[in-house]
């Protein structure tokens, strides 16, 4: 496939602040360990974190910005902690480097067997983020 920029004037550049998402999130199956709400929280935290991955947004601010209830925020945060994507010591949250030595296992252990919920997960994530997400085959 021949690739080309669709909008050359909008070519992504490395920003002054740290906020890019590591591709290993998908490639190493971290994303499969999270529901759409946890992924929305992860995107938020990656976006607002400093160069060391630290942020200290108040719960009520995160709840308001992501339209989460306190319970939903707690569940999303716990999911990210279990997936080893963040560490918390309230009010401080650290987005963790993806550890290649401890790659998580995919939700379905046989990589040749497709995840039956893949389409539903993508649709849910699209709806939650309110934007188009490219289909992954």
Describe this structure in words.
- The protein is mainly α.
- Helices cover 36% and strands 7% of the residues.
- It has helices spanning 24-27, 36-48, 59-66, 70-82, 118-129; strands spanning 54-55, 86-89, 92-95.
- It has a three-stranded antiparallel sheet.
- A hairpin with a 2-residue loop joins strand 2 (86-89) and strand 3.
- Helix 2 (36-48) crosses helix 4 and helix 2 packs across helix 5 (118-129).
- It is globular and about 45 Å long.
- The two termini are 15 Å apart.
Topology at a glance:
Layout: H1 24-27, H2 36-48, E1 54-55, H3 59-66, H4 70-82, E2 86-89, E3 92-95, H5 118-129
Antiparallel strand pairs: 1-3, 2-3
Please indicate the percent range of residues in DSSP E strands (runs of 2 or more).
5-15%
Order of helices and strands: HHEHHEEH
Continuous helix count: 5
Taking all Cα atoms into account, the compactness measure Rg is: 16 Å
- Mean pLDDT level: 79
Ends apart, CA distance between termini: 15 Å
Tally the beta strands. 3
General shape: globular
**What percentage of residues falls in helices of 4 or more residues?**
25-40%
**Spatial strand arrangement across the major sheet:** 1-3-2
How would a textbook summarize the main sheet?
3 strands, antiparallel
Uncertain stretches: 105-113, 132-137
Classify the secondary structure makeup into a structural class: mainly alpha
